[in-house]
Specification:
- The chain contains four helices and four strands.
- The chain is of the alpha+beta class.
- The protein has a single domain, classed as Gcn5-related N-acetyltransferase (GNAT) (Aminopeptidase, 3-Layer(aba) Sandwich), CATH 3.40.630.30.
- Strand 1 and strand 2 form a beta hairpin.
Length: 127
């Protein structure tokens, strides 16, 4: 299974979904040990290294605009962290946090996260 069911969480209020978090194990560790060659012949090797993954990726998080600023995002992150810790994970990487997303960056700092990589996207209109 590519996703751990405990790493995909939803927040609800009165039966309405108001937020979510999507995390996944970082399979780069496994693929590196397989030299990028994923096939049926190395299935047992894949399963062996899959058990040793200790890093996850927070791929996406979202909170409905009506509920932003009410600590829903940190609560979702904390619950995802709890699930990761129970399964032996030690590190989580946040993917693609936009520089303009100040509220999410504040949530990351609440958990002592640090920025270690920047990507810049440029745009130019082509006629």
């Amino acid at each position: 299974m590519a996703l751990e069911k405990d790493f995909v969480l939803f927040a609800e209020h009165k039966g309405k979904t108001i937020g979510f978090v999507l995390c996944a194990p970082d399979y780069n560790f496994v693929l590196k040990n397989l030299n990028g060659n994923l096939n049926v012949l190395n299935l047992f090797t894949f399963l062996h290294f899959k058990k040793r993954i200790r890093k996850a990726r927070l791929i996406a998080i979202g909170v409905s605009s009506d509920y932003r600023g009410q600590n829903i995002a940190p609560l979702l992150i904390a619950n995802a962290y709890d699930a990761m810790i129970k399964k032996g994970y030690t590190t989580v990487e946040y993917s693609w946090v936009l520089a303009e997303n100040i509220p999410f960056q504040k949530a990351v700092r609440k958990f002592y996260g640090k920025i270690y990589k920047h990507y810049i996207v440029y745009q130019k209109k082509i006629n």
